[in-house]
Amino acid sequence: MSAAAPPAAASKLFLREMTVRRGGRPVVRDVSIEIPAGEVTALLGPNGAGKSSLVLAVGGVLRERTGSVLLGDEDVCRARPERIRKAGIAIVPEGRRLLPDLTVDENLRVATYTLPRADAQAGRERALEMFPELNKRLTNPARALSGGEQQMVVLAQALVSRPRFVLIDELSLGLAPVVVNRLVPTIRTVAESGIGVLLIEQFATVALGLANRAYLMEGGQLHYSGTARELLEKPELLHQAYLLRGSDADGDGAAGSHPTPA
Ligand SMILES: Nc1ncnc2c1ncn2[C@@H]1O[C@H](COP(=O)(O)OP(=O)(O)OP(=O)(O)O)[C@@H](O)[C@H]1O
Ligand SMILES: [Mg+2]
To answer: Which residues surround ligand 2, an ion (CB under 5 A)?
Structure first.
């Protein structure tokens, strides 16, 4: 146990020169990203860019990785998932995987089982404060929830361990615009609570509206990093990254739009 390491020391999570291999092939190459505490950082890029692979590697799920995952002086790049989580990094993987036959409450408990009881209780209360809707769903099986509610449980699962950094892969995938609009302020609240958020999001303007800084990945490599504002003001950079596809490429296309219904 490294009780000596003061958590406040890490004001950012620094992914340095990360390379990730899948099937023997590098799908992320030399990617460096800084995720400051208390801010949202956007990670954008077309399908197959390597965004999910990067998140899974940081979470310790993909083992074929090199580089550094730095929390202050501590490098957890070679650590196991439980250790990474304990160090304060939570990942929300793509695709909302809950245990469908367990209740919402049980799904939250699964996420806290390694924590001391008092921490688990505090984390659970904190997560439910952020998603008060879930209070009335606690005894429902997860499979009975809407996609948006399931996403809330997945986010709550990440937050119960009160991480210092959370990496969210595809917040809005498959969700109705009205649900995305409900989740957006929550991400802001999470960041304002001091947590550093890395947000991967298909709706570029949703991510850029929340983020301070943004990164663009393509073909496993970083193609741009700068302020979210700059990317919003220069949509051609997004076009170049093939974010806008087909007929979207000429207008306010799906990838660039806030999903507010007309
Ligand atoms: N299980 C796997 N085995 C081998 N290669 C994989 C596997 N999953 C993904 N890949 C490859 O890794 C590369 C990066 O994929 P990844 O899923 O990380 O991209 P992504 O940016 O998350 O894309 P998307 O926007 O579609 O979610 C792609 O070339 C993909 O084909
Ligand atoms: Mg992905």
So the answer is: 52, 94
CATH number of 10-94+163-243: 3.40.50.300
Task: Give the model confidence (pLDDT) of 120-147 as tens digits.
Answer: 899 899 889 888 889 999 999 999 998 8
Q: Is the CB of 50 under 6 A from ligand 1?
A: yes
| Best residue for ligand 1 mutational test, from 28, 53, 56, 91 (most atoms within 8 Å of Cβ) | 53
The torsion of the CA quartet 85, 180, 38, 222, rounded to 10 degrees, works out to 80
- pLDDT (tens digit per residue) in 63-97: 999 999 999 889 999 999 999 998 999 999 888 67
For the chain, strand residue ranges (E) read 12-22, 25-36, 40-44, 65-71, 74-75, 89-92, 165-169, 196-200, 213-218, 221-227
Task: Write down the pLDDT at residue 162.
Answer: 86
* Residues forming beta bridges with residue 196, ordered by sequence position: 165
- For the chain, the structural domain boundaries read 10-94+163-243
Residue with tokens 């023997």: 24
- CA–CA separation, 186 and 204 (whole Å): 17
Residue with the smallest CA separation from ligand 1 atom 14 is 50
59 lines ligand 1 (CB under 6 A): no
Ligand 1 centroid from CA 164, angstroms:
26
